[in-house]
Specification:
This protein has 19 helices and no strands. With 417 residues, it is mainly alpha-helical.
Length: 417
């Protein structure tokens, strides 16, 4: 078993690096190349072209251990995403960001629920309640990939423009609300109606405690750690134990462990020395080894061949159109209402339509819960890839039409734009 897992991880890491570098040369986020690399290793490509080689290099017996490694990697990754969330910054521009964030969630969520009426009979697994199916589809349409969006802005040098900061803030708030919605869907799906109410109540209590008492305790603890002469292994161990305990708590409550890890990251002051230290110590290993394992596990579960007929591909196209219309349209209209011009509103809309890795995490949760079928899972993975890969070229087209705002330039409406 150890030999199988070591061989599989080696193949996965090499593939992720090579495809990631290729995507970087194509001016796409390397992380999307790693996602595609994971899909290439699955039954859709490698398993179809050379079943014997695929079975030898990625033996089915290694799948359970790879899945555990992938889950641990996602827990650590969501902790790092939480560290990127700047809670004080969210309070600084609450009116505009709240309006745009809510619109970019409510519109795609409503469209997703409406789409569920058309897809339920054909694509819902047997025995799944319509409410769970519809709520999950709504959440899957509402996701914005905060880390990928941040990487795109950084690659374009836009992270310090007003639009870049607005996009990051909206995406962070969007993700926070989306995770809460997903927690509700998970609790409803996993429990009986009475148990779901208990799970939702416990989730609300835990989140409230973490954002109030937990945040104050964490701020004081981090302040003491920052004052130490040397931030070393003990500090790192303390933080990682807190991550695992919080992940354990949310798993016991009845929602996914990643919520607990995300919350711990969100309540740690992001400008603290301990946050920088922890990020520097674990970020590379998470991105280089653990996340590619998650992409490979996702790829092994994704079979493009399940989307066989012209009707299947038509449904897949409808899902992509609905997802894009909800995110792009909701963000565009809300941005115009709060005073942005058409061009900046369109740019913000296409940025918020970026789904990427976060969407894949959500889809895997849905598949594990049995809320969505493997065929719908494949369609939604395709949607996540298409909506993310379209971001960079469309943003480049907007950049070519007129140089972007310099840092400090205000985003105001102007006639005719």
């Amino acid at each position: 078993m150890l030999l199988n897992v070591l061989m599989a991880l080696t193949v996965i890491m090499i593939t992720a690096r090579l495809v990631g570098m290729l995507f970087a040369r194509l001016h796409q986020p390397p992380v999307m190349g790693e996602v595609v690399g994971g899909l290439l290793l699955g039954p859709s490509v490698f398993g179809r072209l050379s079943p014997e080689a695929a079975a030898f290099l990625l033996p089915p017996a290694s799948a359970p251990l790879l899945s555990v490694i992938a889950q641990l990697g996602v827990i650590l990754y969501m902790f790092l995403v939480g560290l990127e969330l700047d809670l004080p910054a969210l309070r600084g521009s609450i009116a505009i960001t709240l309006s745009i964030s809510l619109a970019s969630i409510v519109v795609p969520f409503a469209l997703g629920v409406a789409l569920a009426w058309q897809l339920y009979d054909a694509l819902a697994p047997d025995g799944v309640m319509f409410a769970s199916f519809a709520l999950f589809l709504g959440v899957s349409m509402s996701i914005t990939a905060f880390p990928v969006l941040a990487r795109i802005l950084e690659d374009r040098g836009l992270q310090r423009t007003h639009l870049g900061m607005l996009a990051l803030t909206c995406a962070a708030m969007n993700d926070a609300v989306a995770w809460c919605l997903l927690a509700f869907v998970v609790s409803v799906t996993r429990a009986t109606p009475g148990g779901a109410i208990v799970t939702v109540a416990l989730t609300a209590i835990y989140v409230a405690l973490m954002l109030t008492v937990g945040r104050r305790v964490m701020i004081s603890t981090v302040a003491r750690l920052d004052r130490a002469n040397r931030i070393g292994e003990q500090s790192l161990a303390l933080v990682l134990v807190a991550v695992l305990l919080s992940a354990l708590a949310t798993e016991l409550i009845g929602i996914h462990a990643i919520f607990g890890a995300f919350l711990i990251g969100a309540i740690i002051p992001r400008d603290s020395a301990i946050a920088t230290h922890v990020t520097e110590r674990i970020e590379d290993i998470v991105r280089v080894m653990f996340l590619p394992a998650f992409f490979a596990v996702t790829g092994l579960r994704t079979e493009i061949g399940l989307v066989r007929t012209a009707d299947d591909w038509l449904l897949c196209g409808v899902i992509i159109v609905v997802a894009t219309a909800g995110k792009f349209g909701g963000t565009l209209l809300a941005s115009r209402i709060v005073g942005l011009d058409w061009r900046n509103s369109a740019a913000l809309g296409i940025l918020m339509n970026t789904r990427g890795l976060v969407e894949l995490i959500v889809l895997n949760i849905g598949l594990d819960l049995g809320v969505i079928s493997p065929r719908l899972f494949t369609m939604l993975v395709i949607m996540a890839l298409v909506t993310t890969l379209m971001t960079s070229p469309i943003l480049s087209a907007l950049l070519k039409s007129r140089p972007w705002a310099e840092p400090g330039q205000k985003l105001t409406s102007s006639p005719g734009q």
